[in-house]
Amino acid sequence: MGRDNVVRLWKSKEEKEIERKVRMRKAKMALKQYINNLEALKRKIFLQGKEAAKLGDEALLKRSAMKYLALEERIKQAKRLLLLMEEAEIQRELVKVSGDFIQFSKDIVESIAEGPGAEDLAKMQVEFEKAMAKVEGLDEALGTMLDMTSESILTGDFDAETIEEATSLFEASASSDLEPKSRLKQIEDAMRG
Q: For an engineered disulfide with 191, which of 29, 49, 132, 148 has Cβ 3.0 to 4.6 Å away?
């Protein structure tokens, strides 16, 4: 039986990378569409709040302002996730470039093997191997995070919890711009005026 007739059970590293890039591109497009939809909904709610203010319906005005604030937060979280995904892609590229450099350095060391003693060469070889293992491990971890994030977006399992899980993988703390109550007041005032 020829080699071409054998069904391959495992995909090559290149095939996996191409599939990952396609999933990431689709996930980013879906996330951008989600953000655009939220922005449109936010504008509708703002106009609804303005109409409620004209009618003097304070209860409807307050509900509209609260919905507006909630949508602002969702938009902010979605944009943050998009930035984190882009940051992870950049980090993976940096890891790849570093891995290429380490491999290049290893090749150079091997080509000048006559220079240093065998013991020095062996030590350098071990250090290069350790560095390559770290690069490969980091690349795999970032790839896994990108896969999980893009899959959750593409399968519709995208929610605030997903954003928080992805965010926690990349950063330890985040700062809020304004207190929710003062921001709510600003929204209500904007709807009134």
A: 49
